[in-house]
Amino acid sequence: MSTSAQKGLLEILSMTPVIPVISIDTVSDAVPLARALVAGGLSVIEITLRTAAALDAIRAVASEVETVVVGAGTIIGPTQLDVARRAGARFAVSPGCTNRLLDAAEACEIPLLPGVASATEALGLVDRGYRLAKFFPAEASGGVGFLSSLAAPLPQIKFCATGGITRESALRYLGLTNVLCVGGSWMVQKDRVSGWDWETVTSESRSAAALRVPRLVRNTYLS
């Protein structure tokens, strides 16, 4: 991924401490859900490509909610990158990273946040010029302790930690120097979405948006 694309992705990941990770079953839920999240201060969301409604949901949010930056998650193949871009996604997120997917990302206009779960995978991304990655599945792969151990040997790369993170554990991740943000689903529980309980979604989002760690973050690693 080019330096300019990474800088654009860095700007997106720096907009919020928590990125809601959403699976949409019904397209009509997408726009009011996005508006409820934005009302709570979460202006970046990831809609996973795990349901038949996902692409239409991305398309609806991108066209109707100007104040949100919508990304496509669970990108597992090269063709999905362009499909997500054409649906209106501003960024793409993968649970892992293969050479085939990374090669496709270099030729695509949409920036990719590739997933890693080991030091070897993270080092492979650094070798390809990446400075941003998703750490997934975070809790199952060593959590805060593992990410903390990567900060000294691999200071070049910063993470969005996702997978099993809760409202209670999020701040521990955000306190690490090599974590820009976390991905979570606790504010978008299925019963709240299906019941159109937007008031609770907004309230939970407001609490999540307040999880900022007061420290100076230097982003010179992309310069």
How would you sum up this structure, described in words?
- By secondary structure, this protein is an alpha/beta fold.
- It has one domain (3-222): Aldolase class I (TIM Barrel).
- Helix content is 43%, strand content 17%.
- It is built from ten helices and nine strands.
- It has a nine-stranded parallel sheet, sandwiched between helices.
- The longest helix is centred in the N-terminal third of the chain and has 13 residues, at 27-39.
Task: Sum this structure up briefly.
The chain is of the alpha/beta class and 223 residues long. Helices cover 43% and strands 17% of the residues.
**What proportion of the residues form beta strands (DSSP E)?**
15-25%
* Pattern of helices and strands: HEHEHEHEHEEHEHEHEHH
The CATH level-2 architecture is identified as: Alpha-Beta Barrel
Helix percentage range: 40-55%
CATH superfamily: Aldolase class I
Residue stretches low in confidence (pLDDT < 50, at least 5 long) are 216-221
From the alpha-carbon coordinates, what is the Rg to the nearest angstrom?
Answer: 16 Å
- What is the CATH class designation? Alpha Beta
Task: Give the spatial strand order of the biggest sheet.
Answer: 5-4-3-2-1-9-8-7-6
Look at the helices and sheets and give the structural class. alpha/beta
Contiguous helical run count:
10
Overall number of domains:
1
Q: Mean pLDDT across all residues, rounded?
A: 94
Largest sheet: 9 strands, parallel
Give the number of DSSP strands.
9
Straight-line distance between termini: 14 Å
